[in-house]
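Reviewers of the previous submission asked for a worked example of the structure-prediction workflow described in the proposal, so we include one complete record here. The input consisted solely of the amino acid sequence. No template or homolog information was supplied to the procedure at any stage.
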Amino acid sequence: MGGNSYAHPFLVAEINYDGLLGFDFLKSHRCTVDVHSSVLRLPPESNVCGEGPNYPETRVDLETRKVKVRVVEDVLVQPGHEMILPVQPEESSRQSMIVEPISTFVQKHNLMVCKVIIDGTSERSPLRVMNLGSESKLIRKGTVAAEAEPIVDVWNAETAKLKREPDLVASVASTSADIPISPHLGPMIKGCRNKLSVDQLTEVKKLLSEYDDVFSKSNTDIGKTGVVKHRIETGNQNPIKQSLRRAPMHL
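From that input alone, the workflow returned the following structure tokens.
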């Protein structure tokens, strides 16, 4: 909150009613909720992150506004099948956005809709749905399928500590850079950079480096194994032998 990290235990629950959560946290750290301005204030003397009493007051904007998410092209969802709906929020955002289904869309089309986090600047985003009924469902272009609201990135305590200690960041980065990684494993590392902490990324590099030889380098380098054998049971049927047939010219 406000660029700072606060360690506090919490429970995750499906709650369908608006309410003020985390009251024990607010009380223990003497927070102030300004309802009129939609602002949460944490006093500098709360010292929840160990910065000391001279750390400035933390101010968090509580106001969020949901926007409608519309389907951008016609999509036919077959019964019992999953599909990806191309969708777009009515208003873009510089932040990531969480997309949640609306009950009217779910009930009307008898679909299961997944919650998803999307890039707020993207013109088209994927929304996964599943047809639970026995009839095909045609989702028309422009249909409001969900609602979206901006979210903020959450820094864990370890990352926040590294952010305040540049020397430690350089030290860990240097250690990670010393681990040799083959070129064909580069895309795996690249895909992990934004999802793992520095220490976790270092452990992944160690693991990939240790088992480098078990990863294929191309589509023609899959290899083979004799550990598992496949057997097709045909019962008491004799083998079938058929003569060759000439393929028709038009094929």
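Residues 169 and 175 are 10 Å apart (CA to CA). We consider this example representative of the routine output the project will generate in years two and three.
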